[in-house]
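Hi everyone,

Forwarding the result from last night's run.
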Amino acid sequence: MSPRWCSPSEAALNSSEKNGLTYAQAGVDIEAGDALVERIKPLARSTQRSGSMGGLGGFGALFDLKAAGFTDPVLISSTDGVGTKLRLAIEAGIHDKVGIDLVAMCVNDLIVQGGEPLFFLDYFATGKLDVAQAAEVVAGIAEGCRQAGCALVGGETAEMPGMYHGGDYDLAGFSVGAAERDALLPRDVGPGDVLIGLASSGVHSNGFSLVRRVIEASGLALTDPAPFAPGLSLGEALLVPTRIYVRSLLALHRAGLLKAAAHITGGGLPGNLPRVLPDGVAAEVIGGSWPLPPVFPWLARAGGVVEAEMLRVFNCGLGMVVVVAAEHAEAALLQFQAAGEAAFRIGQLVPATAGGVEVTLQGALGL
């Protein structure tokens, strides 16, 4: 934090005389930034974990890998945002959920490589800092970090007049995890392995440019009742945060049952599942082998979106797909269910055919 000087010249700097402009008059409120830091310090403290060192306020954050229990670690990093889901959050005035999305989009990408999320940093940019609004966002980030078991070690708040307007803001997240060198994923993936899908909480944080067009086509307002979620407004239903799968996947990995996992984000099943498949291996997914959350049939009907496009844009009810050996499939399903995950056997891996597609859907989704 920069010092705040108190001197007779301060009055002159705060005046409207010629050559007496201040940073505040240019649109940047240093005091508001300081107030936000004080508001979020308890939130950051609530996320501390083994390996955390220091607190907010330094020029950089420290983390002790040895104290976190690693002996031969490989670091894994990830960065992401929330996309145009933020537009809905701003228009609906619901700011305490998108921070969870921000964390989820990063830490779910770490766990699929076998990494335990260690710490997280955020970047919050806005035209004029609203301390209450920003504190709601950071409260969501802290909640996401608690769900993922990682520490919120710092971040940056940027007040940029002229770049953002009204109550607009943008978010970016940065996370670092670690895995022991001999525990990186994917590993030993091949034909005969079983695919298990883990239920999503809804649309998660991808495809919202299309979601917003569907809302326009439907004629509904965000304050109207959601046609697919009784008791919730359309805004509340669409802003349900991305599910964080870290704890359940870490447990499966540490039990020696996890061969690979694919975070189903933009690109859907056909775009993400191939990222964990070796050459010569393809995936057969059985349509109808998992329940389809009601939001997806509504999006398809209200927007006239065909099944192939739904699969290519949205997670369609599966936020994560894991690969396990056939002999471990039942044990993995039971472990997921005990951890509170809705898990479904959705298909298997097969030898790829020359020129064939990497992911095939047998049957229909049921849109």
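The chain is about 30% helix and 20% strand.

Cheers,
N.
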